[in-house]
Amino acid sequence: MSELLVDFITSLDGYASGEGWPGFWGLEGPEYLAWLGEQPKVTYLMGANTYRLMSGFAAGKVPSGLDEFRPEEEESVDELTRASKVVFSSSLAEPLTWANSTLVRDDAVESVRAMKANGSGLLSTIGSLSLSRSLLRAGLVDRFRVVMFPVITGVTGAERIYDGYPDVALEMIEHRTFDGSIQLVEYKPRVLERPPLGAPA
């Protein structure tokens, strides 16, 4: 059976990106980059918006306001290109042009449920906020990992990650600090039907 990881890279205030900021907010360090390079092989899950964005980067398109990718960003995109990717979309047309990408038009939740039951290895979301939210609501997420960078993007932040999420209890299973400033926290999530009303008597 496969394991599903929802994996986010965020500012401290919970944004997935910020207008005018480079990848990793320009704050990645050698420890963090080394850790990224040590991650096991995964199959990435994404929706149409993330596919359009990331495949554009792979084709050489850089984010607005930037002249070119830094070497660290180029390597990250190259690794994604080499990885297996499953894209859930009813609007994209086949064939997908980004290498190693498979288009799935069926319901994402039921498709991932089947992938988990019938597969092995690790499945991981990348970006795709609405997909991640749907998979969490359905109780399919085994691990919820957040890497928080030491920046607050209250003015320029884009894509608030947790808007629309259910209430979730999180049991910490790992934590780590990279380069003295980047914080990783990893949890086992449990979706709550309702918040606790108080401690038992």
From TrEMBL:
Residues 5-183 form the Bacterial bifunctional deaminase-reductase C-terminal domain. It comes from the Bacteria. GO terms for molecular function: 5-amino-6-(5-phosphoribosylamino)uracil reductase activity. Pfam families: RibD_C. GO terms for biological process: riboflavin biosynthetic process. SUPFAM superfamilies: Dihydrofolate reductase-like. This is Dihydrofolate reductase family protein. The lineage of its organism: Bacteria, Bacillati, Actinomycetota, Actinomycetes, Mycobacteriales.
